[in-house]
Amino acid sequence: MARLAERKADYLQHLQHAARPDVVHLRPAGLAGVRLRHRALPQRDLVDVRPEHLAEDGGT
User: Fold this and answer.
1) What is d(CA 50, CA 40) in angstroms, rounded to the nearest whole number?
2) Could you tell me if 17 and 6 are in contact, meaning their C-beta atoms sit under 8 angstroms apart?
3) Secondary structure class of 42 (helix, strand, coil)
4) pLDDT score recorded for residue 22
5) Cβ 43 vs Cβ 37: under 8 Å
6) How far is CA 25 from CA 18, 49, 51, in A?
7) Is the CB of residue 38 less than 8 Å from the CB of residue 46?
8) How many angstroms separate the CA atoms of 53 and 40, rounded?
9) pLDDT tens, 15-40?
């Protein structure tokens, strides 16, 4: 179990390092061609879904 915890800690450290603003990425993440369908809030139009709107009404 300790090995798993060490691996998770190493992975977290890698992600924190990679997310720093001074880190330059030489290759894209490979997600340019990925398009996700909006299904999280089917009662709303996608153009109306913004975080500030969700906060106003509690996300309902």
Assistant:
1) 12
2) no
3) coil
4) 93
5) no
6) 8, 30, 28
7) yes
8) 14
9) 999 889 999 888 888 888 888 776 77
| pLDDT score of 59 | 45
d(C-alpha 34, C-alpha 36), whole Å: 7
Reference 18, options 2, 33, 27; nearest CA is: 27
Which run of H or of E encompasses 36? none
Residue in this structure with the two tokens 């913004």, named with its chain if needed: 50
Q: What is the pTM of this model?
A: 0.40
Q: Token match 């924190």: residue?
A: 16
Instruction: Kindly give, in sequence order, each residue whose CB lies less than 8 Å from that of residue 46, ignoring residues fewer than 6 positions away.
Output: 38
